[in-house]
């Protein structure tokens, strides 16, 4: 079985919370590594609600410094401290967030029990900001009223699995295994060639997830996320409010669908809904008219990649 | 009927929210004037949950700058702005909060649609910080790890109501009415004396509410709130954790009861419970052992004064 690669929606509202919706926050679980993406007010409450042990989060990615995307961070940092965290926490954010946090720590006379490492995002150029043996995270340059980055999480190619039956049958020498698993053909001392494709099992494509919020409609975003398996794209308004979307540097549901179609993604999830909407079905229908494989972000929903 | 004087509990947890409890926030309604006392993370969510129109809040009192008492403020200020507020908002707080808010407004490139007036509290001396025709608010000097003020809301004495039957019967001259209502005796031109007590109806005592959180046990607090009708006093721990209470500058439930008894208050409400407690009954029982007229703060509970 494949390891986990799943996104849990903690908040789907834009601007302000409502009685049913929280501001933006998501948890990405990649093989039990936990990444928090944005941290709107109440994110720690949502983490508790969905029984996610938040001390397991070691990396927090903040897209931009509008309150509905980061106001829950100070509380989460503080709770991690009060509940005894010792492990380093890495926070990725456009410039300014460290200053906001540090002044609050100073005024409350708090010295955290654990180190925080701040990584300042460059809002002008996509950069690889995180990398481990399984995964890389690259920023996506978004187009909003203030500096704003999306995040592209991409699984690395793994070694292929050997087709043990055929290996045994054809007596492939052990010293060829690593080449075959790496996708390379192997030539033994006699000059016989073993093709990787013949001795390995078909592998699924590496999984990937792109988070794009907040942003106005921008085809450059589509270029950066071409072929991604799962795309979360903001869809603050219905297209009838295009004027309002343009004025506030947000996207409509139709525009989110166009981005998904242009980028040929596997699946689209829309969210960051204006508080004016109680029923999200019209937003879903509008995005689907451009890109049928679309779903709606709702608190507690889990999307498997 | 008497006008409203009631406290709604929006949050009763200390330090961090739990899945059932929010950090400190309360709404005081005095004759449809709305005062917010502390504003922990998620206060705006709680205001919505209890259908309190938060644009009606014109005064916010912040006791101190530990996150569990103010982290919901930035979101509330921001939502008031996004939802079109024009009216002035007055915020009372120890030094530092304006700096915390201003830097966040600056970094998010937000210019509020409405004026905020900041009133810096003096944490060393009780002061009258608010006054209108019905009510005064005086700070209470608390004893915590950082500068911290409680708040004493006290109804002003109103004019007495005339006993119309007796006024008519004894033909009291109209020019004496104001003196009688003010509690003064009146002498008419012939020298006849009309005693206020004989021509007015008995009046209930002015109502009052004291908010005392966070604080270690301190008899000086009792002096400042002597005779108050309703007292909210923090009771973070059971008395078996007195060491912990002293170390963190908090009170035990027993100590809260002693303060209520010493100050001879009408009724005590305890709150600000440590997240270690799931069942608050032992805390209630402990406070009651000192002061029987005690109740527990719980989200959504309304206490009439």
Would you write up a description of this structure?
In chain A, 27% of the residues lie in helices and 26% in strands. Chain A folds into two domains: 5-158 and 203-304, Metallo-beta-lactamase, Chain A (4-Layer Sandwich); 164-199, no CATH class. In chain A, helix 10 (253-263) packs parallel to helix 11 (281-290). The model of chain A has no long low-confidence stretch (mean pLDDT 96). The radius of gyration of chain A is 22 Å and the shape is globular. The first copy, chain A, has eleven helices and 16 strands. Chain A has helices at 43-49, 67-70, 73-82, 97-107, 164-169, 177-181, 196-199, 219-224, 242-248, 253-263, 281-290, and strands spanning 5-11, 25-30, 33-39, 57-61, 89-93, 116-120, 128-131, 135-141, 149-155, 186-187, 193-194, 208-212, 230-234, 267-271, 294-296, 302-304. In chain A, strand 2 and strand 3 form a beta hairpin. Chain A is α/β, with parallel strands linked by helices. In chain A, the strands form three sheets. The first copy, chain A, has a seven-stranded mixed beta sheet. Chain A has a seven-stranded mixed beta sheet with strand order 7-8-9-12-13-14-15.
């Amino acid at each position: 079985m494949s390891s986990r690669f799943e996104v849990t929606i903690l908040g789907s509202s834009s601007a302000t919370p409502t009685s049913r919706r929280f501001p933006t926050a998501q948890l990405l679980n990649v093989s039990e590594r936990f990444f928090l993406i944005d941290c709107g007010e109440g994110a720690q409450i949502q983490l508790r609600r969905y029984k996610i042990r938040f001390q397991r989060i070691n990396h927090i990615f903040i897209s931009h410094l509008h309150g509905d995307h980061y106001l829950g961070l100070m509380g989460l940092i503080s709770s991690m401290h009060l509940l005894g965290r010792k492990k380093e926490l890495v926070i990725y954010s456009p410039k300014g967030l460290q200053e906001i946090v540090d002044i609050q720590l100073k005024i409350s006379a708090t010295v955290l029990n654990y180190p925080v490492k701040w990584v300042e995002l460059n809002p002008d150029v996509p950069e690889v900001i995180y990398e481990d043996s399984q995964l890389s995270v690259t920023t996506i340059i978004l187009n909003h009223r203030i500096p704003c980055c999306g995040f592209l999480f991409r699984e690395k190619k793994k070694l292929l699995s050997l087709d043990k039956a055929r290996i045994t049958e054809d007596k492939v020498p052990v010293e060829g295994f690593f080449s075959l698993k790496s996708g390379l053909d192997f030539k033994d001392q006699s000059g016989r060639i073993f093709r990787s494709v013949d001795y390995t099992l078909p592998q699924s494509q590496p999984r990937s997830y792109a988070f794009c919020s907040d942003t106005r409609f921008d085809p450059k975003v589509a270029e950066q996320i071409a072929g991604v398996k799962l795309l979360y794209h903001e869809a603050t308004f219905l297209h009838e409010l295009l004027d309002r979307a343009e004025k506030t540097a947000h996207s409509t549901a139709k525009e989110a669908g166009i981005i998904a179609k242009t980028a040929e993604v596997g699946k689209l999830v829309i969210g960051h809904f204006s508080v004016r909407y109680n029923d999200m079905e019209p937003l879903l229908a509008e995005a689907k008219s451009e890109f049928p494989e679309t779903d709606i972000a709702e608190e507690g929903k889990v999307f498997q990649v």
